[in-house]
Structures are given as C-alpha cells and as structure tokens.
C-alpha cells in the first residue's frame, strides 16, 4: 500500500508506520516509495502502470522531530487515539463538575482556576510529545487555550449558553442516577419523564384578521451628521405583509412621493409576540411619513391606522459674542443662535465664579408663525386631507439676544445645555464623551466665557487743598496716587489661582496741569491748562512732577476698564524760598577780672521752620594744640539766641557753614558776617567727678576726685553735709589738675552730701561753685546667723539625704559665708555664696555646723554668736527579726513552717506590738517578727518556688502595715517548696532599706491527689437485653494511698448526676464497676468527682475534665415516613431508622430476598416498577442486635393517556365551527385528567397557555368538542392510585414531578 502514489491534497504518511506496509516480498526494505506525479503515466489500454523510482534508504538515526514515545513502543495512530481518549475523559470530568454546580445552583472560581491549569498543561504538553498530526504551533496552542478558558468561564460561572439545554440533557444522562428497590442504579428521569404516559396533540387553527400601524408609540426622530439615519417602526397585528407602501412629504418643497419597501427591507423584522410583527424602516431624509398601503399574503389590503411621523433635522445651537473681557456692570451682549423646528426651547446655564444657575427660553419661533404642533389637542395626522403644506416643519435659525448685567467680577461662563424642538426631540450637550443617542459632546461653539474685571479707582494721597506739596526748586517729587479697585480695594482677578503670577495691574493716569501764575482767584485752573498722561506698570508706580502749579487727576484706566477718580483729585505744588541766616553777637566778660569768657549769638532766619544751623569751632585744646569741631543748633522758629563759652583759654573762631529747613537740606551759606572770632580767658573751675550711685560702709571712708581748670596753684574749699550739720575743709597749694578728697571715718549711717564750694587760682579771683555729690552710709553692718527649723537649731534626718540649713542674712546681696563642721577634726572651712537673705547651706554629714565669717558685696559683717551653730543628726534605720521562735523551727539561717496541701488557704497575720513590733500568725502556728523603726512599714519579700516536677520560679511581693495589723497570704497554688525571703523593709522615713542579714521562712506544699481514666474518652456500649454484666472501667490514681473516691454518672437527658463513693483504695490502680442501679437506656457520662489521699489532701474535678462514655443501646428500629401502603412507580419509599449508623436493612421484592446498607438514619429507594415491597429486619453497627420487622408497601403502575390516538393532528376550521377531541386512558378507573389550550406555536415564538380544564372519566375513553383555536394537549392524568403531570416540568431541574390531587 505504501507504494501507491498520493494526491497532493492527501494527508502525509504517518512517520514510522512503514514497517506495517513494507515490502511483502522479503526484500528487507521497509521504506515507502513516493512519486512526484499524482498519476502514473500509462502507455495504452491494458498496459500496467510504470514502476516508481526507489526511495533512498533512510538513516537509522532518530530525528529530533520524532515522537517522544518511540513508535516502536506505541505506534502513532495509537498515540493519537490515547490522546483523544484522555481529552474525552477530561471533558466528561469537566461536565461532571459543571453538573454539580447546576445541582447546587451556584458557581465556583476554584473550579475555573482548576480547569484553566489542566487545559494549560494538556494543550501545551501534547505538542511536546511530538505525536504526528498533533504537533500544532504556539499560536494554535494559545488560541485553543483561550477558547477552552472562555468555555470554562461560561460553565463554572453559570453563564447561560445556547447549548445549555443539550449539556443538561447530556450530564443528566451521564450522572443523574439513584438506587432503586432492586438495588440497581437507575436514572430518575427515565422513570419520572416517561413520555409514553401522555401522548398525542391536537391543533385547531382559525385564520385571524390583521391591522397595520406606523409608529404607534409616537416616537420622535431627527437626523444630523452623527445620527444620519433613523428607524421608523411599522407594527403589523395578526398579518404577514407582502407589500408595503409609504407616503413621504418633503419639508422643503411640499412635494410628496410614494416609497415601496423592498423584500430585503421587509426581511428585517422582529416578532414581539405570536401576533405582532415589527418592521423598522430605515431612512436618511427628513420629511413627514405616512403608511399608505399594506397587502398581506392573501393579496388582501390590510386595515391601516392613520398616523403621521415627522423626521426633522436635529436641533442645534451656537453662542456668539463680541468680546471675552468685560468690566463690572457691563452687559453680557451675547447672542444664542438656535436652529430646529419651532417652537423651540433652549436651556442654558450661567456660571459666575462657582455659582451656577439654570435658565431657559420657551416658545422660540419666528413672527407670525403658525404650526399644527402648537395645538393642545394634537391629532394623529398633522396634515389634513387634501393639503400638502408641511413648511411649518422646516428647520429655522433664530437668534436670541441675551443682555445681563455682569456683577460681580470673576470668571463667567454661558453654556447651552439642552435644545428642545416642537416635535419632542431633545439635544442634550455634555462636556464629557457621547454617552447616549440624544447626548452630544459640548464644543466651544456652545460655550462663551467672559473674564469680568474690577473697575479701577484712583485718588491722591498726602496732598490736598489744605496740605500743598512743598518741593525745593528744581527738584522732582512723586505724585502719590492711591490705586485701588471697586471690589476689594485692590486690582485682583478672582480667577487667579493661588501660587500663580500676580495679575497685571498696569494702568493709565491722565491729569491736567496749570502753572501758578495762571490760576484763578479761587485757586482753580485758569486759561493755561496742559493735559498729561502717565502709564503705570504696577499699582504702586507713580509719576513725578517738578513744575509748581495745580495738578488735577481727570481719569484712570486699567488694561480692560475705565475707572473712577475720587477726592482728593487735585494737588498744588509750591516752591518755598531758600533759607537765609543773619548773625549778630555780643561779648561776655568776667565780672571779677574783666576778661572775655564767651559770646552771646543772635540768629535771624528766613525759610520754612524747623531749622538746623551748622557751624565749625576752631580753638586750642587742653594739650596745647588746635582742633576743629562741628556743632548743630536746632531752631524751631525764625529767631534764636545761644551762648558760646569755651572751657580753655585761647583764640576761638566760629564759622557758620550751612542751614537746613523742612524743604531744603544742607543749604550752603555764603556772604559776609558768617564768621565770629574771640580771644577767651575763662575763670577757674572745679568739677566733682562722683559716681552716679555711691554707698559707703559704716565706719568707712569715702574718696572722690575733683577736676581743676585754671592757673596753678589752686585753693579749694569743700564741705561734708549730714544730719543738718556741715563740716568745712580748705586745701591750698594744689598744683595738679586732679585732686582726691578723702573723708574721715563715717560712724553714723544716713544721707551724706559732699559739695565743692569755691576755687581760687593764681589770678586771685575766687569763684563760687555748686558742684555736689550725694551718697549713703549704711546704718548697720551685714550680719549672719542660722535660722530655726521647727523652732530649734537641731534637725534629725534620714541617712543619705541632704539637709538644707537655713541662713538669715542682712545687708546687700550677694553674701559670702564661711562655715565648718566642728565634729570633724582637721576640717577646712567652706565658703557659701548666698544670693538671698533666706538662703541655705546644703550639708550631707551629721555634726555641728558653725558660721565663721560673713561679708556682702561691699562691706564685711558680723556673726550672731547665739545662732552661729546648727546640729544635724540621723534617724535610726529599720530592722527586722523573729521575735517568737516557738511558732517556727529554726534550721540554719532560715525558719521552717508547717506543711499544707496544694490549693489550701494559709496566711500570716501581721500585728504591731510594743515598740513598733510586728507578729505573724497562721491558723495553727504563729511567729512574731519585730520591726524597729517609724510606722507605717512597707516590707518587700521574695517567694522562691521549687517544684517537684519541672523548673521553679521566683516572685517578688510586698505588703504594708499601716495600723498595726496586716495579713500575708501564703502561696499554695502549686505543689513544692516555697521559700520566703524578706529582702527589704521601709518605714515612713526610709525607702526599702536592705538588712545585712535577710529573714528566710520556708514552707512545703504537698501536691493534690489525682484520679484519671486509663482510656479517657472510651465508649462502652451494649444492647438493652444484655445489661446483666457490668462493664469494667480502669482508673489510675496518684498520691499517697489509701484513697477515697467519688464518681459521677450522668445520663444525657438528666441534669443531676448519680454519685458513687468508694473508700479505702490501697493501690494506685482501680477497676471500677458501674452499679446496675444507676444505668438506664441511653448515653451516660462517667467522670471522677473527688479524690482524697492519706495526707488529707483532696481534689475536685473541674467541669470539662476527661471522662468516659457508657452507652446503653436499645435494639434498632425502622419506621415508614408515611403511613400509606400504596405507592406509584417513580415515587420514593422512605423510612426512618433509630440506632447508630450505618444500618443494614433486609427486605423482599418480587419474592427475592435483598439486603441494603444505609449510612444515615434515613433509608430511601425509588420504585422503578410495580410490585410488593416488604421490610423483614434491620441491624446497626453500634450493637449486634437485629430487629425482626414485617412491613409491606404495594407499588402500582402509572396511568397513561393518549389524545388523537397518540399523534399530532392539525385541524383548520372556520369561525364558529367545532371539532371532536378523543382521549383514551390506561390504568384503574375512575380517571381524572387535565388538558390545556395553548396558542399555536410560531417560528421564533414560544407557545402560551390560554386556558386549563379538568375532566373526569369513569371509562377508558372520552370525547370533548371544541370550537376555539389553539393547541390541545393533556398535562396531567390521575387514576384511582397514581397521578402524573407535566405542568411543573419547567420549574423542576430534574424533570417532571408527580401531580397530587
């Protein structure tokens, strides 16, 4: 066969299969031959086909494209078959998972992920096997995988599929099975959905009369570029149209035309129900459409309901404006152009800053416009008979002006939102995307945005009619103009966002100017007026003016708006005269010697006060040289007089250089009479150089320096004044310029004055002086002493704490106090700096402290000998020890207390006795612990636990003894040895003082005995008839024997247990036998209630402790769920079991003994055929008891019915005719059946039930006459015992259900 040539379109030979179709002549070649020609050449009739050339011997080396599984092991067709079989098994598994979801009426993402992974492994794993014909590409794998993933999503998420019905049928066929009475797995659908029980159908058909209507819902239609076509619905009732004509009136020309629908257009129809058909006519042209003629299949004209449908141009609009910038108070001055079929309605929105409002205009139409659409009672036809005028439906373009006052400033936006035409079309404009048939994107032509700016306001600042502007000649000055706005006192765009550049505040100022000589007598502008303009870049940019005259602001204008000029708007600029100075002087002579000592200068000024006159003094210095100094004289008026008296003798020159007034600054003086000269010989002078504040100590001396001027030698007189007394002193022959005065010791305190009264130099003139200095002498010396603490100079303090010894100091701060501790030998004195009269000395060591010396910041002081010492002492530290040793047993460094049981209550009572003694008492023994110190006491101790099992623990505790008594609870919660170590003790003075040798008390806590079951949770069970023998329950005991035991036995239905007591158990193992008297039928819980050992320790079992269960079983029973004995095929016979599952049920059916198992307390089987069903016995696993039972059920066959001999019969009748319907029955009479009359099924439509009737027949057949159209079929049948119905089949997933009458 391999030698046969193949056509080019045939499949290639299977690789590796040549061995099976090889050379049969034994040549040993297993290779197939090939021919490039599809058909071998023939030489003539009867000649054989020419031989084919031999194919070269193939290499024995396996190619890289060979199958992964060698074909010698499994040939290629078998590999493909196995792969297909695996795919089929996966498909069945997939449908089984889907069927489970259908049964549970749910969905599962886990199953979707599961099958996505399985498909991924299978689809991408098969090409890796390199099986011939299954080596698809990666693109094919991806396509197949996504297809499978899509199908998995539809199945596992329960998305309805077009083939879901077939899949349900397939899965029910595969998986819907149930156990029958014969112990066979059967499909309930094959029993319940027995199509042979109800057979036949009779259909009666009556021809109807039809009608046609265009657009019965009065829908509106419009055409535009984005919606170029519309669909006009044509409704046909109870007819099948064959020919349709429409009449169209053109809106522009008023001409009409007839449109005939083609067969292609009539094929696109929609069946709303059984009788109504809709055909949508698609048109692109506006106009008025009317249904003109309709002919059905019988070539008869169908009745038409007259109605007109308008198709117009969709309404649209635009907004136009002259400018986008406005000023506050301007009109909006915009126009809305609306286009559509009038009358129109426009809805627009106005947004002022963030305030948005909606407005509308209605009845927008041309003048003298008449339209039938304006009538309130609108007819179905808008064009009367005989008329063709439809010009009223044409689209009109109408301009709607809109002028509104624009207040306040900011960003304004006008926007067209909706346009309604007269037909009812609504064009909604949205700023987003197109999201509906009548919603359009909002373009810029539908919006107009304005920026409303504030109007500027300007006025002068710092210059008005009462305050002219005074400027020096030839100088310029800025004209201060305050620039604001009408809204917020500043020019600011409300649309300005935070963080952006500030708005443009440039503006233009216009003013008029008149020179001074042209002003009128009233001060107004004269004939000479000059208009000037200034462009300011910012709000604070002002123009500069120079010429004297009257300036008046006439206008202000910003970049967008004209502004307002407010008062003051005029400013008068004046040039005052330059300041001038005239000087006159007079000599001042010494009255004693007649020498000149200075000048008296008079200044006469011209200008604008106040003035500042500057002059330069040139004269000798004290060192003999010459120096120049500058001086200024402040003059508030036009005249001034002052003296020039130098201190040193010599020639002096005074040159007045400049003068300044309120207008001119540093005006240079020129001319004669500005220089004054004089030779000066001043008299002798003495000046007392005293500090500003001087305090002297009592018994101290005061020293002061006097500065002397004149010709040596000097004679100086001074006096000391105090307490109303004067002490005069005279010193002669002073050759120095400075002399130091030193007073005698001042023995009294108070106010003193030292005054220099006169001086006389070599000229012999005595000059009287008034130089005086005052100072204070203290009334007493500084003093130091210790203050009192609680009325005494002693204090007792806690060890280790600082003590602040109070000081009492007098004098002037700061003080320096020297002290020492006289109890410490060789101790050096210490010094303390005190800043307060009530300061303190801080010490740590006990002893007697003594103040040695004291001094304040200026004077030494004295120490009060009566309060110069202070004694510091310590309080004693608290101590702890055992006072009553009889209550304890001393063992080394600790005390032993009596043993107690685990969990017992034990305590020690603390009692204050005598000199702060505390005793500890327990219920049977007592120990007294003595505390020395100051109550109340705080004791800290450590509890160390050493367990018999496991590791120990350490707990730190404490208690407080406030009123002399306290109780310490002993630790008994865990067994073991407890050691109480009292580590720290504190009283009201010392915080937790640690004794050098802590007190230790030890006590042993014995463990509680325990009792537990060897096999906790074990269940002991037996039948009710076998209660003669008691079951043995082993119990394990822990403790010191002998034991006494109490055991609770509680029935599950009882709230109170029965208690069994056992005494003198000498072993740690005990076999417990339950007394028969405490057991009853049911489940019992056995638990240990209490156990006690020989040490007197006992333990009660807590709730929820391990227990065992004793279950007394009764024999199992079985009871039918229903009391009836007659059943039908397809019904389920159910029984209720009592006992412990699983159960074994023994029964007979059709004379055959059978056995079934039930894992629950319900036993149910479906009756697949008639017969007698009898239960003979039942047993359960909990007990080995078997109950003998005899209960029988009778299973009857299902009744059946046929209509029209079980066939489907079509009968056509005329209106008013009748036809017989024959029903035949099988079963046990009487028969009760239900049949329905439904609408006749049509293509693409589901039949609907019109009426349901119920009849009774005592025979096996019955005839019913009918004259109504419809499909007649039986839906339910019932005989004496059984019934069957198909009425609920649609609601049941598993198929039809039985009808119970």
Descriptive overview:
The protein is 7% helix and 46% strand. It has 1301 residues and is mainly beta. It is flat, with a radius of gyration of 65 Å.
List the uncertain runs: 1-63, 489-501, 910-928, 1289-1301
Q: What is the CA–CA distance across the termini?
A: 72 Å
Separate helix tally: 6
Which percent range describes the beta-strand content? Answer: over 45%
Derived structural class: mainly beta
Characterize this entry briefly:
With 1301 residues, this protein is mainly beta. The chain is built from 6 helices and 96 strands.
Features:
1301 residues, mainly beta, 6 helices, 46% strand, disordered N terminus, disordered C terminus, Pom152, Ig-like_POM152_1st, structural constituent of nuclear pore, Ig-like_POM152_9th
């Amino acid at each position: 066969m391999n030698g046969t040539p193949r056509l080019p379109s045939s499949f290639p030979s299977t690789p590796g299969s040549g061995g099976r179709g090889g050379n049969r002549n034994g040549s040993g070649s297993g290779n197939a031959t090939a021919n490039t020609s599809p058909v071998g050449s023939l030489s003539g009739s009867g000649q054989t086909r020419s031989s084919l050339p031999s194919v070269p011997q193939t290499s024995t080396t396996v190619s890289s494209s060979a199958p992964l599984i060698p074909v010698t092991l499994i040939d290629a067709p078998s590999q493909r078959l196995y792969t297909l079989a695996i795919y089929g098994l996966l498909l069945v598994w997939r449908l089984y998972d889907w069927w489970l979801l259908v049964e549970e009426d749910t969905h599962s993402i886990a199953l979707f992920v599961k099958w996505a992974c399985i498909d991924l492994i299978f689809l991408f794993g098969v090409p890796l096997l390199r099986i011939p014909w299954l080596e698809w590409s990666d693109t094919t794998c991806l396509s197949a995988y996504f297809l499978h993933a899509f199908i998995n999503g539809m199945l596992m998420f329960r998305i309805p599929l077009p083939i879901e019905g077939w899949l349900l049928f397939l899965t029910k066929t595969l998986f819907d099975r149930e156990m029958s009475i014969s112990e066979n797995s059967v499909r309930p659908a094959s029993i319940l959905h027995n199509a042979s029980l109800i057979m036949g159908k009779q259909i009666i058909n009556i021809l109807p009369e039809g009608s046609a209507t265009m657009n019965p819902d009065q829908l509106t239609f419009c055409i535009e570029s984005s919606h170029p076509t519309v669909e006009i619905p044509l409704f046909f009732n109870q007819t099948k149209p064959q020919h349709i004509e429409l009449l169209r009136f053109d809106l522009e020309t008023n001409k009409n035309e007839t449109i005939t629908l083609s067969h292609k257009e009539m094929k696109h129809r929609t069946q709303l129900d059984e009788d109504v058909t809709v055909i949508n006519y698609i048109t692109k042209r506006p106009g008025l459409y009317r249904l003109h003629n309709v002919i059905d299949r019988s070539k008869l004209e169908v009745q038409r309901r007259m109605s007109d449908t308008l198709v117009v141009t969709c309404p649209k609009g635009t907004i136009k404006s002259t400018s986008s910038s406005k000023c506050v108070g301007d009109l909006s001055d915009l126009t809305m152009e609306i286009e559509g079929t009038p009358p129109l309605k426009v809805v627009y929105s106005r947004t002022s800053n963030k305030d948005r409002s909606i407005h509308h205009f209605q009845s927008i139409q041309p003048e003298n416009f008449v339209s039938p659409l304006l009538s309130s009672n609108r007819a179905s036809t808008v064009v009367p008979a005989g008329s063709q005028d439809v010009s009223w439906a044409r689209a009109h373009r109408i301009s709607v002006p809109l002028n509104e006052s624009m207040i306040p400033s900011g960003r304004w936006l006008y926007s067209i939102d909706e346009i309604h035409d007269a037909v009812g079309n609504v064009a909604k404009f949205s700023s987003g995307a197109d999201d509906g048939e009548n919603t359009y994107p909002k373009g810029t032509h539908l919006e107009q945005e304005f920026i409303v700016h504030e109007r500027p306001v300007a006025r002068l600042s710092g210059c008005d009619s009462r305050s002219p502007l005074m400027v020096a000649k030839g100088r310029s000055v800025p004209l201060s103009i305050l620039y604001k706005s009408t809204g917020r006192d500043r020019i600011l765009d409300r649309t300005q966002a935070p963080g952006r550049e500030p708005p443009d505040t440039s503006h233009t100022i216009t003013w008029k100017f008149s020179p001074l000589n042209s002003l009128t007598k009233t001060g107004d502008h004269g004939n000479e007026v000059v208009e000037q303009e200034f462009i300011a870049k910012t709000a604070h940019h002002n123009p500069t003016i120079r010429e004297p005259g009257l300036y008046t602001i006439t206008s202000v204008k910003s970049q967008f708006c004209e502004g307002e000029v407010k008062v003051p708007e005029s400013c008068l600029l004046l040039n005052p005269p330059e300041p001038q100075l005239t000087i006159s002087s007079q000599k001042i002579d010494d009255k004693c010697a007649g020498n000149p000592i200075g000048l008296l200068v008079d200044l006469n000024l011209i200008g604008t006060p106040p003035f500042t006159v500057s002059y330069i003094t040139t004269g000798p210095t004290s060192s003999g040289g010459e120096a120049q100094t500058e001086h200024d004289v402040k003059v508030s008026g036009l005249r001034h007089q002052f003296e020039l008296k130098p201190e040193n003798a010599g020639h002096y020159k005074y040159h007045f250089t400049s003068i300044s007034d309120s207008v001119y600054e540093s005006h240079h003086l020129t001319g004669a009479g500005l220089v004054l000269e004089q030779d000066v010989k001043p008299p002798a002078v003495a000046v007392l150089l005293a500090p500003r504040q001087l305090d002297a100590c009592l018994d101290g001396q005061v020293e002061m320096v006097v500065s002397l001027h004149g010709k040596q030698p000097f004679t100086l007189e001074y006096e000391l004044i105090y307490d109303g007394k004067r002490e005069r002193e005279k010193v002669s022959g002073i050759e120095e310029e400075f002399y130091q005065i030193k007073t005698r010791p001042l023995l009294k305190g108070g106010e003193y004055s030292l005054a220099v009264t006169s001086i006389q130099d070599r000229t012999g003139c005595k000059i009287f002086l008034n130089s005086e200095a005052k100072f204070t002498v203290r009334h007493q010396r500084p003093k130091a002493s210790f203050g009192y603490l609680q009325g005494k100079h002693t204090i007792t303090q806690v060890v280790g704490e600082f003590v602040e010894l109070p000081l009492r100091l007098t004098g002037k701060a700061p003080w320096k106090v020297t002290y020492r501790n006289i109890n410490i030998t060789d101790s050096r004195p210490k010094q303390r700096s005190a800043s307060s009269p009530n300061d303190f000395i801080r010490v740590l060591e006990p002893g007697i402290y003594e103040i040695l010396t004291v001094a304040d910041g200026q004077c030494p002081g004295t120490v009060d000998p009566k309060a110069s010492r202070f004694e510091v002492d310590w309080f004693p530290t608290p101590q702890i020890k055992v006072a009553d040793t009889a209550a304890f047993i001393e063992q080394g460094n600790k005390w032993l207390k009596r043993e107690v049981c685990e969990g017992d209550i034990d305590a020690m009572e603390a009692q204050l006795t005598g000199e702060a003694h505390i005793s500890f008492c327990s219920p049977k023994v007592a120990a007294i612990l003595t505390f020395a110190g100051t109550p109340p006491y705080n004791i800290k101790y450590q509890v160390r636990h050493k367990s018999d099992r496991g590791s120990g623990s350490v707990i730190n505790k404490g208690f407080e003894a406030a009123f002399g008594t306290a109780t310490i609870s002993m630790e008994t919660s865990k067994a073991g040895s407890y050691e109480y170590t009292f580590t720290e003790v504190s009283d009201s003075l010392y915080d937790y003082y640690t004794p050098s040798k802590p007190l230790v008390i030890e006590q042993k806590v014995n463990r509680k005995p325990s009792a537990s079951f060897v096999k906790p949770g074990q269940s002991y069970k037996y039948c009710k008839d076998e209660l003669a023998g008691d079951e043995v329950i082993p119990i394990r005991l822990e403790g010191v024997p002998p034991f006494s035991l109490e055991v609770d036995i509680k029935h599950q239905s009882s709230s109170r247990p029965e208690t069994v007591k056992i005494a003198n158990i000498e072993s740690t193992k005990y076999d417990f036998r339950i007394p028969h008297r405490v057991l009853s039928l049911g489940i019992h819980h056995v638990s240990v209630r209490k156990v006690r050992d020989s040490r007197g320790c006992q333990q009660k079992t807590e709730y929820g402790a391990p227990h065992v269960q004793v279950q007394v079983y009764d024999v199992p029973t079985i009871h039918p769920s229903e009391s009836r004995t007659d059943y039908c095929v397809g019904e389920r016979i159910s029984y209720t079991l009592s006992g412990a599952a699983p159960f074994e049920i023994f029964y007979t059916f059709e004379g055959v003994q059978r056995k079934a198992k039930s894992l629950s307390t319900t036993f149910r089987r479906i009756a697949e055929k008639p017969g007698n069903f009898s239960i003979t016995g039942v047993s359960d696993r909990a007990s080995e008891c078997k109950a003998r039972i005899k209960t029988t059920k009778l299973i009857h066959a299902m009744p059946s019915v046929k209509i029209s001999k079980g066939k489907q019969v079509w009968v056509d009748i005329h209106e008013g005719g009748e036809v017989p319907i024959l029903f035949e029955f099988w079963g046990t009479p009487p028969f009760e059946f239900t049949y329905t009359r439904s609408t006749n099924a049509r293509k693409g439509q589901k039949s609907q039930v019109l009426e349901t009737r119920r009849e009774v027949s005592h025979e096996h057949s019955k005839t019913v006459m009918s004259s109504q159209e419809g499909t007649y079929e039986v839906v339910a049948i019932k005989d004496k015992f059984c019934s069957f119905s198909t009425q609920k089949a649609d609601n049941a997933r598993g198929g039809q259900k039985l009808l119970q009458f």
